[in-house]
Design brief:
This protein is α/β, with parallel strands linked by helices and 746 residues long. The protein is globular and about 75 Å long.
């Protein structure tokens, strides 16, 4: 079979830059004093990051910094600078090539605010976990400060915050569609996804004297243009309501025969003709993807029209396969945002090379004994793969890392275990994780290169597992056995998310996992129980969960272990009604789950679920003004109630749930018993009747002095009657009243 995969230059095949003579730094310098100790007069590249500097392959600044160092460049780090002035941005001097700016391992807004937009008090990527050490929208702020410090030095932005904002995107925090971050940051180029290939190519090209204006076609980059490049075919996808008969459209940049209206900008006199094809006519056209781009609706349009926004989101996701994706273009005012196709995934030897770089595996010494929570979590964990083909609509992993799985070799992973043993202080022999975006997609990819090269599916496992997908977990099972056999290793845990719909396809893997790598509890993420909501998440139904649970229980019993599954769920997801959450709560109680940690849907930039949240449309299908509507709970009170259904057992949620159940016509779920969701409202168990003035001779329970003789007489008669009726057993009135109240409450 002929391979149709795109190829790329091998990551470590470039000639080394002259500064490689300085060798490897114990840590990349963060001060002028450290630069002087290394004998450097300047840095070639300076990376600015919102995270504390931890020299570990789980931290982006360390990966890219060490990779550039391996290419021969001198790289400095400005970590968590004071953004209120330019002083910190000048502390390493002027970089010879460019500033590389990232918000850090997390989006700065997600890092700072909860899904309910409450300010978090902590930051796991900061010494002592202190919050507020990075600004909101850190990429924009850092980039602008770099420009202020050295206005003529190019600025490259990247990392997940920039990656998910490469085109116009809905911003949950301001409740509006914002421009591409490349425009707002005033940066010169944006790198999206795992950026090793793009960064190495851009850096070497700049070192050879080229300017960023000349680097227009590097995969994985986004740039600003004045006009589209000549010689291309444009697929015009700016509308969703094309008329039945579509005539050919003239491009403003195309040569128009004499006699027809034409205008030409002086700056575009050398632009080659562009052929424009309306999106409805593109089918059947054999177009060269290398010379084709798709025109998205402009920022001005999508910022005012949510339906066009959902349409744009669908196009972006359909153009995510690096082997067939075409460039995208989106007008922002008079400028054009040009998104080159995604980078070609790294091959296994390249992945090994990236993770085999000489990381110190500890925080920079300047932090002394300060605890950095994120480092504590991952210091003995190992990334074995990248990417995710699950396509969960609420997750941004696919938009950032892509759907093609990139895996390391067993040898590289075992070598990293030896590095951990040698370099991590106080290592006890426990590897805390072997995983990545998921724990069990290692080496899993399409069986057919030709099929993969042409595929545009949003998920390889939804609605069912693709017949072309390799689901053989044996390389992972063998890896687990090898790691357990390493001398000095007594425990290997699996903490990354498990795709149980894939795991059930390989019972031997489930047996290995359950027998040796579950420490009593295994976290998995069904996310919901109702098909309507699951279809908007692109997650499997509960039948798959039940199948996995049976396997889990069986192998736990065979191993002689008492182990439990801990399922995760999301409230207020697009498509989730109150009835859906009620049914999920009933499922939780029926299965005796009382979740402690639950989450409300968080509309992260660029995800498909965020497009649903903003637009009320379903971008999993072609979008029109009459296409499927998607209901999304947005009101803060309703989101709180939906979250409360997940914690039905928490007394603080009971009153809100009672009110909701009554409104939903389900008061039958209020009360005591296994078939009830929340208890009835608590009343004083001592029933107190309002005092009444008794008539002479009337027996009452009123304590009125004028009736005392009558009360005593009647009480004695009542006591005698009860004694006769109960066979001599006397029950006090108080006891009887309590019994009545108890019975009524039941």
């Amino acid at each position: 079979m002929t391979k149709r995969h795109k190829t790329a230059k091998q990551l470590f095949s470039y000639p080394l830059y002259w500064a490689e003579c300085y060798g490897v730094s114990p840590f990349l310098p963060t001060t002028r004093e450290e630069m002087d100790a290394l004998g450097w007069d300047s840095c070639d590249v300076i990376i600015v990051s919102g995270d504390a500097y931890v020299d570990h392959p789980s931290f982006g600044m360390a990966v890219l910094g060490r990779l550039l160092e391996a290419q021969g460049y001198r790289v400095g780090i400005i970590d968590q600078p004071d953004w209120r002035n330019t002083d910190d941005f000048m502390r390493l001097g002027r970089p010879n090539l460019y500033f590389g700016v990232t918000a850090g391992n997390m989006d700065s807004l997600i890092n700072r605010y909860t899904a309910d937009l409450k300010v978090r008090n902590d930051d796991a990527y900061t010494p002592y976990g202190v919050g507020g050490k990075r600004p909101d929208r850190a990429v924009i702020v850092y980039s602008q400060r770099c420009k202020e410090a050295f206005h003529d030095v190019p600025v490259m932005i990247g990392g997940i915050e920039a990656s998910l904002r490469r085109i116009a995107q809905y911003d949950y925090w301001s409740d509006e569609v914002r421009r591409s971050v490349l425009i707002d940051s005033t940066a010169d180029i944006l790198l999206y996804g795992n950026a090793e290939r793009a960064m190495i190519e851009v850096t070497h090209q700049m070192a050879m004297g080229k300017t960023l204006d000349e680097l227009t076609d590097i995969r994985g980059t986004t740039i600003v243009r004045n006009a589209p490049p000549g010689g291309y075919t444009e697929i015009d996808s700016t509308r969703v309501d094309w008329p039945g008969k579509v005539d050919q459209i003239y491009s403003p940049y195309e040569y128009i025969p004499e006699g027809k209206c034409q205008t030409k900008d002086e700056d575009e006199s050398d632009v080659m003709p562009i052929r424009v094809i309306p999106a409805p006519l593109r089918r059947g056209e054999k177009l060269d993807p290398e010379k084709t781009y798709i025109r998205l609706p402009s920022f001005e349009k999508v910022s005012k029209d949510p339906v066009l926004y959902a349409h744009t989101s669908r196009i972006l996701h359909l153009e995510s396969n690096p082997h067939n994706a075409r460039a995208l273009i989106q007008k922002h005012g008079k400028k054009e945002i040009w998104v080159n196709p995604p980078p070609i995934p790294l091959e296994t030897p390249e992945m090994d090379g990236v993770f085999d770089l000489p990381y110190a595996r500890v925080p920079h010494p300047k932090y002394k004994k300060a605890r950095i929570p994120a480092y504590d979590m991952i210091k003995t964990s190992i990334n074995i793969m990248r990417g995710c083909f699950g396509g969960c609509t609420f997750c941004s992993i696919t938009e950032h890392e892509g759907r093609v799985i990139q895996s390391r070799s067993h040898e590289s992973i075992l070598k990293e275990i030896e590095d951990i043993k040698d370099k991590v202080p106080g290592f006890t022999g426990h590897i805390s994780d072997l995983g990545g975006p998921t724990s069990n997609m290692y080496t899993l990819n399409c069986n057919d290169d030709e099929v993969q090269a042409s595929c545009r599916k949003l998920s390889c496992v939804y609605p069912t597992i693709c017949s072309n997908l390799n689901t053989d977990h044996s390389p992972t099972t063998q890896l687990y056995r090898k790691t357990r056999a390493v001398e000095g290793i007594h425990t290997v845990s699996i903490a990354s998310g498990l795709r149980y719909d894939l795991a059930v396809e390989d019972p031997e893997y489930v047996r290995e996992l359950v027998t040796h790598h579950v420490g009593g509890l295994l976290k998995i993420a069904p996310e919901h129980s109702e098909e309507g909501t699951l279809s908007k998440m692109m997650k499997p139904g509960m039948g798959t969960y039940d199948r996995f649970k049976r396997m889990f229980d069986k192998y736990s019993k065979e191993a002689g272990k008492k182990q439990h599954l801990i399922p995760y769920f999301i409230a207020a997801h697009p498509g989730s009604s109150d009835e859906d959450m009620l049914n999920l709560a009933v499922w939780l109680k029926t299965n005796d789950f009382k979740p402690d940690q639950v989450q409300t849907f968080y509309p992260s930039p660029m995800s498909l679920a965020t497009a649903m949240y903003h637009s009320g449309k379903n971008p999993l299908k072609p979008v029109t003004y009459k296409s499927e509507d998607v209901y999304t709970p947005k009101d803060a009170k309703q989101r709180t109630v939906q979250k409360g259904f997940l914690r039905y057992h928490d007394p603080s949620n009971w009153q809100a749930l009672r009110d909701s159940l009554i409104k939903m016509g389900r008061p039958d779920l209020i009360g005591h018993g296994d078939n009830k969701l929340v208890p009835a409202e608590e009343k004083d168990r001592q029933v107190r009747r309002r005092p009444q003035k008794a008539k002479p001779g009337q027996a009452t329970g009123a304590s009125h002095t004028s009736n005392r003789p009558t009360m005593e007489k009647n009480a004695a008669a009542e006591k005698a009657r009860r004694k006769n009726n109960n066979g001599g057993v006397t029950a006090t009135p108080t006891k009887r009243r309590k019994t009545k109240v108890k019975s009524r409450q039941q």
